[in-house]
Amino acid sequence: MTGTVPAGPPVLLCRECDGMSFCLVPCRCTYYGDKLLVSEEDRTPGEPYHNCLECDGVGTVGRPCHVCRQTGRRRAQLVLTMANLDTGTLASVNVVPGVVEPARWPHDTTSWYLPLAPLLREPAADVGAGSWTDVRQPGPPDGPLILLPPRWRPDLCPTDRKLLEAEAIAAHSNDAWLLYLGRTASRSPDDPAGELARRCRLADLLCLDLVVEARRQHGGTLSWHLGYELPGGGVPTDPRGHADNLTTAITSISELDAIYGLEESGRTVPAYRLNCPDLPPAGPTMVDLDQLERRILADCVGVRSGEPTAGAQAIWRDGRSWHTSLREADTTTCEIVLREPDGVRPLVTAATLPAAIGALGLTPGG
Question: How far apart are CA 279 and CA 66, in angstroms?
């Protein structure tokens, strides 16, 4: 582990609770004032109610301090861990006062911050990662932004500088351990075929379906989307994609967008058994995007009628793609009800009126 200092990371009193592990906050009764019955027009905010059962008329109540997690202390230390997903190696670096040289904020002569990007490159080099991203929020891989207090100046004595740096680092102590997932080779954003192959392998590992969909819009054009779904789930009624072609859908839809709505759609999915092999499936090394797009476009037209369908899907499951056309569901139904004094009671529902009458044991027209 690199980036350590002999004295160890300092521990500071929590500024929110002054080390008491709880805070005194105004009671809810102070919102209305010292009255039992009050309206918005005659309320006197700030004055406690003398018979309040929560604060006993004091006006303040104790609440646990969530900033320090009821410890009264905040540790001025962050740990940045880099994990290479290709080799399985790990390396970590400590962020403590004095390890990172503060830098001036661009275009601002009075603000300073701790640049963590150079420090994060050390564990990345140790594990051989060429690219990486934060496991919680994919984005710029430069580490958290730690702004120093306005009182920090480079001409202060070393003790005061480190104390102010400790305050800035301690402000991030609720997320003291940050994990970054790296790859040996940087993935090119101009490689949609490789990106689709990677998502197919990820779907296999998660036992999910990766659905590539082309849905017909009102004007007749097709919108493309790809996302993860649970096997057995229903087809969403509304189109989810806005890409004009398959390549644009792959490059513009992020992992978070692809998994959006998975929890809601999974509530109605039937239970099924998973047989996981000892080794994860290899998955495709590359996908022929032209062939896949042509096949989906062909499924957007009826084979016998030649009429445009509602769309088509290519579902990656069990190591291969399954293709299907989408058609609009026939939602026309007939319901026979019995009107009673206390309301209406449904008797039978069928696709047509003769079928509904026949379900009641009657003969149509009889």
Answer: 43
Q: Which two tokens stand for residue 86?
A: 């290709």
To the nearest whole percent, how much of the chain has pLDDT over 90? Answer: 9
pTM of the model: 0.48
Q: Distance (Å, rounded) from C-alpha 50 to C-alpha 290? A: 76
pLDDT band (50, 70, 90) for residue 211 = very high
**Sign of the alpha-carbon torsion through 123, 129, 131, 135:** negative
Give yes or no for residue 214 having a pLDDT over 50.
yes
Paired tokens of 220: 């007749």
CB-CB contact of 346 with 352 (8 Å): no
Pairing mode, strands 11-13 and 73-75: antiparallel
Q: Which of 252, 132, 129 is nearest to 195 (CA)?
A: 252
Closest CA to 152 of 96, 99, 107, 114: 114
pLDDT tens digits, residue range 35-51?
Answer: 777 666 666 677 888 88
For residue 239, what are its two tokens?
């189109």
Q: 229 and 262 in contact (C-beta within 8 Å)?
A: yes
* Cα(83)–Cα(9) distance, integer angstroms: 24
pLDDT digits (tens, 9 = 90+) for 215-241: 988 778 889 999 988 887 777 776 777
Asked if 327 and 311 count as a contact pair (C-beta separation under 8 A), the reply is no
For Cα atoms 166, 172, 173, give the angle at the middle one, nearest 5 degrees: 85
